[in-house]
């Protein structure tokens, strides 16, 4: 996957922002980190659950591994360049979902449904992001602040 596409997708999620921490880009929603990357974005750590961590590291050990420091909380390290783009975009979206406030996730899902997308996943983000009503989720994000 193109490292800049990783950054672009992480930043495109409602309420998400990129903040440099420890000399590296971190991606947050409401101040909580859902992904972080190396300065050149060629490797990253993404928030997952323990079952997903085990499945990814078991199935693709050349792409995914248990993340340093935060792996004990279920995070995976990923070689961004070797990862399947759709799979990694889905993983980022799910990491955002685990971290974002429930109201923001609900607004995101409602906007995606209105756009004719059952759930805005990585593949849909590549093809149909222009149809996504980001304004609706931005309003919820502002109301929650």
Describe the structure.
GO terms for molecular function: DNA binding. With 145 residues, this protein is an alpha+beta fold. The chain has one domain: Aspartate Aminotransferase, domain 1 (Alpha-Beta Complex). The chain is 46% helix and 20% strand. It has helices at 3-12, 50-59, 85-99, 102-114, 122-128, 134-144; strands spanning 16-21, 24-29, 32-37, 43-46, 64-66, 76-79. It has a six-stranded antiparallel beta sheet with strand order 1-2-3-4-6-5. Helix 3 packs across helix 5 (122-128) and helix 4 (102-114) runs antiparallel to helix 6. The longest helix has 15 residues, at 85-99. The model is unreliable at 125-133 (pLDDT under 50).
Can you tell me the residue ranges where pLDDT is under 50 for at least 5 consecutive residues?
125-133
**Rg result:** 15 Å
What average pLDDT do the residues reach?
87
Question: How many individual helices?
Answer: 6
Q: Kindly state the percentage of residues in helix.
A: 40-55%
Please summarize the sheet with the most strands.
6 strands, antiparallel
Q: What structural class is derived from the secondary structure elements?
A: alpha+beta
Q: In the CATH hierarchy, what is the class?
A: Alpha Beta
CATH architecture: Alpha-Beta Complex
What proportion of the residues form beta strands (DSSP E)? 15-25%
Spell out the helices and strands N to C.
HEEEEHEEHHHH
Q: How many domains?
A: 1
Strand order of the largest sheet: 1-2-3-4-6-5
